[in-house]
Design a protein that fits this description.
Elements: H1 4-10, H2 22-34, H3 40-49, H4 52-64, H5 70-86
Helix pairs in contact: 2-3, 4-5
């Protein structure tokens, strides 16, 4: 067991970004797998608002495809799956 003083001495709030929610972690995971880290905030928002099974199915589709632009293919597949889910 560590003392709180020891933990606070090592804590540096300016050293990095903090992920405090599960959907943030999943959004970062998507951006890394797609190789599209410039748009990680978009994927974090999608992880929060889009049902998880749609995102997982789209990720499987993109990983199986040999596309140059995986991010665009992912967005297209998510749109298609949303249309099918609404019907």
């Amino acid at each position: 067991m560590q003392k709180i003083k020891e933990i606070l001495n090592r804590f540096d709030p300016t050293s990095g970004k903090y992920v405090s929610r599960e959907f943030q972690s999943y959004g970062l995971y998507i951006s890394q797998k797609l190789g599209d880290e410039q748009r990680k905030t978009l994927y974090i928002k999608m992880a929060k608002t889009v049902p998880r099974f749609i995102l997982e199915h789209a990720m499987e589709f993109v990983m199986d495809a040999k596309a140059r632009n995986k991010g665009a293919l992912f967005m297209w597949k998510v749109g298609e799956l949303k249309k099918q889910h609404v019907k």
